[in-house]
Amino acid sequence: ECDEEILHGKYGQHLSGHKEMKDRELYSYINKGGRPRQHLLSLTRRAQKHRLRELKRQVKAFAEKEEGGDIKAVCMTLFLLALRAKNEHKQADELEAIMQGRGSGLHPAVCLAIRINTFLSCSQYHKMYRTVKAVTGRQIFQPLHALRTAEKALLPGYHPFEWKPPLKNVSTNTEVGIIDGLSGLPLSIDDYPVDTIAKRFRYDAALVCALKDMEEEILEGMKAENLDDYLNGPFTVVVKESCDGMGDVSEKHGSGPAVPEKAVRFSFTVMNISIAHGNESKRIFEEVKPNSELCCKPLCL
C-alpha cells in the first residue's frame, strides 16, 4: 500500500524494507510453478556451481581478506567444522589428516611396529594388507616394500658414530652392512656343518644402533633422575648375550636370500644403563622384560 512501482525481481527486497507493516507474509511472493529445488548434492557439477555462485564469491572475498587468498583452506575448515558439529568425528579426523598432508593411511614405521608386535610373518602381513585394501578401498596399511625401507633405519650401520677414545684394531667406518659371520674363523668341519651360512653385523655398529633406538628412553630416564643437561657420560651399558633357535625359517625370509631349513639367532639385550654422576652411579634405564623377543637386538643369523 505504499504506491511505489517495483520490478518483480526486486519485490522481496522492497518488502523487507517495510518493517512497520503487519501481516507482511500475506504480501510475500510465492513461486508455485517450476520444479521443486533439488538437493545440492544430487545436482550436476554445473548446476552446483550455478547455485553456489554467490556463496563462492563471498568465500573468495573472505579468503583474500583474511587468509591470503587460500580458498581451499577456508572451505576445508568450514567442512571440518560442519562434520564436527554433527559428531561425524571419524570423517573429520580423516579430512584433518589429508589437510595436514598425512593422508588417512598409517606411517610405514607404524605398520612395521604392528607387524612385529603381533608376530606376523611377511606373508601374513601381506595377506592382511591386501584384504584391508580390497574391503575398504583405501590403502590404510603400507605395502611390504615400504616397511623394508623403514626397517633400514633400524639396522646397524645406519647411524654414524665414533668411539672416544678410538678402539684399537676396530675400523672407524660406521656404514657397515651385513657381513659373513664365518669369515675369520678357522674352518673346521667338526665345529659347524659345511653348508652353514652366517650373516652378522659388526658388534660395535649393532650396539650403537640399539642405543640410538633407545634414545627416548635414555633421555626420559635422565630427566627422571634430574640429569637433564648432564649428557657427557661416561655411560655404563650392561648387555646380556643370548642365542635362540628360530625354527623353520624357509617361509620367513621375505625377499632376501634363500636360507636353510633351520636358523639360529645370536642376539643381545640391553639390560640396564647407568651414568656416573659425581661419586655415585645413577641407573637411567632398566629393561622390564629382558626375556622378550621384542628387546632382542640381532647380531648374527
Automatic annotation (TrEMBL):
Entry remark concerning the domains of this protein: The NBD (nonamer binding) DNA-binding domain mediates the specific binding to the nonamer RSS motif by forming a tightly interwoven homodimer that binds and synapses 2 nonamer elements, with each NBD making contact with both DNA molecules. Each RSS is composed of well-conserved heptamer (consensus 5'-CACAGTG-3') and nonamer (consensus 5'-ACAAAAACC-3') sequences separated by a spacer of either 12 bp or 23 bp.
Q: Which InterPro entries match?
A: RAG1, RAG1_DNA-bd, RAG1_pre-RNase_H, RAG1_RNase_H, RAG1_Znf, RAG_nonamer-bd_dom
Q: Which gene encodes it?
A: RAG1
State the superkingdom: Eukaryota
Query: What is its cofactor?
Result: Mg(2+); Mn(2+)
MF (Gene Ontology): double-stranded DNA endonuclease activity; histone binding; protein homodimerization activity; sequence-specific DNA binding; ubiquitin protein ligase activity; zinc ion binding
Q: What does this protein do?
A: Catalytic component of the RAG complex, a multiprotein complex that mediates the DNA cleavage phase during V(D)J recombination. V(D)J recombination assembles a diverse repertoire of immunoglobulin and T-cell receptor genes in developing B and T-lymphocytes through rearrangement of different V (variable), in some cases D (diversity), and J (joining) gene segments. In the RAG complex, RAG1 mediates the DNA-binding to the conserved recombination signal sequences (RSS) and catalyzes the DNA cleavage activities by introducing a double-strand break between the RSS and the adjacent coding segment.
- Of which family is this protein a member? Belongs to the RAG1 family.
* Reaction catalysed by this enzyme: S-ubiquitinyl-[E2 ubiquitin-conjugating enzyme]-L-cysteine + [acceptor protein]-L-lysine = [E2 ubiquitin-conjugating enzyme]-L-cysteine + N(6)-ubiquitinyl-[acceptor protein]-L-lysine
- Keyword annotations: Chromatin regulator, DNA recombination, DNA-binding, Endonuclease, Hydrolase, Metal-binding, Multifunctional enzyme, Nuclease, Nucleus, Transferase, Ubl conjugation pathway, Zinc, Zinc-finger
* Gene3D superfamilies per record: 6.10.140.510, Classic Zinc Finger
Q: Which GO terms describe its biological process?
A: adaptive immune response; B cell differentiation; chromatin organization; T cell differentiation in thymus; V(D)J recombination
Q: Which GO terms describe its cellular component?
A: DNA recombinase complex; endodeoxyribonuclease complex; nucleus
Q: Which residues form the RAG1-type domain?
A: 1-22
Where are the annotated coiled coils located?
none
Question: Which protein is depicted?
Answer: V(D)J recombination-activating protein 1
